[in-house]
């Protein structure tokens, strides 16, 4: 690559508004199924006094007496939790780390740092780009340090992401749009126009994100996005990035659910038991063993797919089967493996298999001439203006403040 790594544009240069990952504060507010969350809420409300406090898990940020506004777009109670006696908030879909969609209780009283600015722009048009960070740090569950561990630098999701990273320092969350309804693209002013002139065809904010999905790479400075000088290379990368985006969005935003070709679609060959204890893989038979259950065919690319050096199928399985401390709300979970988890497992295998195939076609840029950060500065589009790094003003709907009062924005 002709440009030194330090002169590659960063995603922060191209999509300047970013938000730090959520800090939930308590793990019981997330679960792989919505029924579990409702059962946990009911258990919390049945408890009183010190028992309710112990189940809740107070922190310096949230206690049973915290006075908190409702999250934007969510109709939840705002009375103090110590007095709450109402129904369970309706769970919402959450991108719980890479490639795992779970459910969240969208109640601001339960979440330490919920990032309301993300909730204000989360709608049927939004796409969230989630940096996976520079994978250099502690990997969970005793997996050791993984410098520059394998995996993608950037993923996208239609569900609100928590930004959790399986290894290394978590990256930032960058919504594609700064306003609801697909308005005010989160792209540095002047960048689409500059690239349009360089490539001889219109470049949109969606194209910039698609290219980043296809070409981004981790670096110590952040998520690096090399920009090719050659129009054909750009066009091919955008097509690839759009396909990757469609796969990761799982049919959201008007796309089709990801599917493997006939004959390569995974099926359950032996029923998954009520409480599977381990997940193993037979490479020769392309078979995933879920306890005594069997799923095949499972391509090796799906089994070996990693983010931050961590195998995604193992992480997904562990989140659903790891033991919880008895007597806690985390211990409230399905008594047996639900059928919906099997369907989600088959979908995850499909997504990882397709993603692995697509990543093998990433644009080769080692010898390609590139547009550098220096070039972007010389063209006057960098640095991004300060206003582009702040949330857009979103005042088109009322938000409920603590104790039912109207929130002051």
What's the arrangement of secondary structure elements?
Blueprint lengths: L10 H4 L15 E2 L2 H13 L2 H8 L35 E4 L5 E4 L11 H6 L6 E4 L6 E2 L4 E2 L8 E4 L2 E2 L11 E3 L1 E3 L3 E3 L5 H9 L5 H11 L1 E3 L2 E3 L2 E2 L2 H19 L17 E4 L8 E4 L4 E4 L2 E4 L3 H4 L2 E2 L2 E2 H10 L17 H21 L10 E2 L1 H6 L31
Parallel strand pairs: 2-8
Antiparallel strand pairs: 1-3, 2-3, 4-7, 4-9, 5-6, 10-11, 12-13, 14-21, 15-18, 16-17, 17-18, 19-20
Helix pairs in contact: 6-7, 7-10
Plain-language structure description:
- With 409 residues, the protein is of the alpha+beta class.
- It has two domains: 5-258 and 363-404, no CATH class; 267-357, no CATH class.
- It has helices at residues 11-14, 34-46, 49-56, 116-121, 191-199, 205-215, 231-249, 300-303, 312-321, 339-359, 373-378; strands spanning 30-31, 92-95, 101-104, 128-131, 138-139, 144-145, 154-157, 160-161, 173-175, 177-179, 183-185, 217-219, 222-224, 227-228, 267-270, 279-282, 287-290, 293-296, 306-307, 310-311, 370-371.
- The strands form eight sheets. Strands 1-3-2-8 form a four-stranded mixed β-sheet, covered by helices on one side. The chain has a four-stranded antiparallel β-sheet with strand order 15-18-17-16, with no helix packed on it. Strands 7-4-9 form a three-stranded antiparallel β-sheet.
- α6 crosses α7 (231-249).
- The longest helix has 21 residues, at 339-359.
- It is globular and about 65 Å long.
- Residues 136-147 have low confidence and may be disordered.
């Amino acid at each position: 690559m002709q440009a030194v790594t330090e002169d590659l544009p960063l995603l922060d240069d191209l999509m300047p508004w970013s938000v730090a990952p959520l800090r939930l504060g308590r793990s019981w507010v997330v679960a792989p199924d919505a029924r579990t969350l409702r059962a946990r809420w009911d258990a919390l409300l049945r408890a009183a006094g010190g028992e309710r406090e112990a189940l809740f898990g107070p922190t310096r940020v949230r206690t049973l007496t915290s006075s908190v506004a409702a999250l934007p777009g969510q109709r939840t109670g705002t009375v103090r939790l110590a007095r709450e006696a109402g129904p369970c908030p309706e769970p919402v879909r959450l991108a719980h780390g890479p490639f795992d969609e779970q459910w969240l209780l969208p109640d601001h009283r339960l979440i330490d740092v919920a990032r309301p600015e993300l909730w204000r722009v989360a709608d049927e048009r939004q796409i969230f780009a989630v940096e996976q960070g520079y994978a250099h740090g502690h990997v969970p569950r005793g997996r050791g340090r993984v410098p520059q561990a394998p995996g993608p630098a950037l993923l996208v999701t239609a569900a609100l992401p928590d930004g959790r990273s399986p290894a290394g320092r978590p990256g930032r969350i960058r919504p594609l749009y700064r306003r609801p309804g697909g308005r005010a693209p989160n792209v540095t002013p002047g960048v689409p126009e500059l690239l349009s002139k360089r490539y001889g065809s219109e470049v949109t904010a969606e194209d910039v994100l698609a290219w980043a999905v296809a070409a981004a790479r981790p670096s110590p400075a952040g998520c690096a996005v090399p920009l090719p000088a050659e129009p054909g290379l750009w066009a091919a990368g955008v097509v690839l990035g759009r396909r990757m985006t469609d796969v990761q969005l799982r049919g959201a935003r008007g796309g089709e659910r990801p599917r493997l070709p006939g004959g390569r679609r995974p099926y359950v060959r032996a029923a998954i038991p009520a409480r599977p204890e381990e997940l193993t893989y037979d490479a020769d038979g392309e078979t995933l063993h879920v306890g005594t259950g069997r799923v095949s065919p499972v391509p090796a690319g799906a089994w070996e797919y990693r983010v931050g050096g961590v195998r995604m199928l193992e992480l997904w399985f562990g989140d659903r089967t790891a033991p919880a401390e008895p007597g806690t709300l985390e211990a409230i979970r399905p008594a047996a493996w639900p059928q919906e988890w099997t369907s989600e497992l088959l979908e995850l295998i499909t997504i990882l298999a397709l993603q692995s195939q697509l990543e093998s076609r990433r644009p080769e840029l080692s010898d390609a001439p590139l547009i550098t950060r220096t070039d972007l500065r010389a063209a006057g589009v960098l640095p991004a203006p300060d206003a582009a790094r702040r949330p857009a003003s979103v005042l088109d709907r009322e938000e409920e403040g603590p104790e039912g009062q109207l929130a002051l924005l």
